[in-house]
Amino acid sequence: MSKYTNSNYVVAVAHCILNQATRWFWEGDSGAWTEGFVSDFLERLKLMGVGLYQLPCPEFGLLGNPRRPMTRDDYELLPGFIEHCRTLAENVLRDLKAFKELSTEPKIEVLAIIGIEGSPSCGVEFTSRRIAETNVRAVGMGIFMELLEGLIVSEGLNIAFYGLDGRGLTESILNISHSLEKSVKRLI
């Protein structure tokens, strides 16, 4: 049970946080995260009384699975991918605005958008790039998150972006949870 009395908070989460089956899968490598990764994070959100909105997976939505791992650079060159991401981001923006504008009792607040660090689409602080024929993790947003952030800023919405990072999983979960908890306390 939540220690907070209100349950009028929502976070938008990268699709694969709730459905790992959409992650890239190639030549026997499931691309799966460490067991418990998703449930640990979701349990923390549950304890805060935070609801979830599942973002679409741009990569799975266009290419399905299995698909080979690709960098942001690869996706930028893939015909139609940026337009696909733009359409998805516009749909997400419409939904997030509806939470705020159409909710009455309780009034719903969208606290954050949570991406996956290193993703070519959903990275927040880090994405994957191709440098000198090598795939590397580089500073920057994924394509979908960059487009979504631009739309959110242009609409004047105040929604934080966080990236769940598999390279420092426990710390990442704690940092995001702490930030969300502060937001919930501030809004109570």
Brief descriptors of the model:
188 residues, Rossmann fold, four-stranded parallel β-sheet, two-stranded antiparallel sheet, 7 helices, 6 strands
SSE topology sketch:
Layout: E1 9-13, H1 15-18, H2 37-48, E2 50-54, H3 58-63, H4 72-77, H5 81-102, E3 109-116, E4 126-131, E5 134-139, H6 143-154, E6 160-164, H7 169-187
Parallel strand pairs: 1-2, 1-3, 3-6
Antiparallel strand pairs: 4-5
Helix pairs in contact: 2-7, 5-6
Folded structure, characterized:
The protein has 188 residues and is α/β, with parallel strands linked by helices. It has a single domain (9-187), classed as Rossmann fold (3-Layer(aba) Sandwich), CATH 3.40.50. The protein is 43% helix and 19% strand. The chain is built from seven helices and six strands; from the N terminus they run E-H-H-E-H-H-H-E-E-E-H-E-H. The protein has helices at 15-18, 37-48, 58-63, 72-77, 81-102, 143-154, 169-187; strands spanning 9-13, 50-54, 109-116, 126-131, 134-139, 160-164. The strands form two sheets. It has a four-stranded parallel β-sheet with strand order 2-1-3-6. Helix 2 (37-48) packs parallel to helix 7 (169-187) and helix 5 (81-102) packs across helix 6. The longest helix has 22 residues, at 81-102. The model is unreliable at 25-34 (pLDDT under 50).
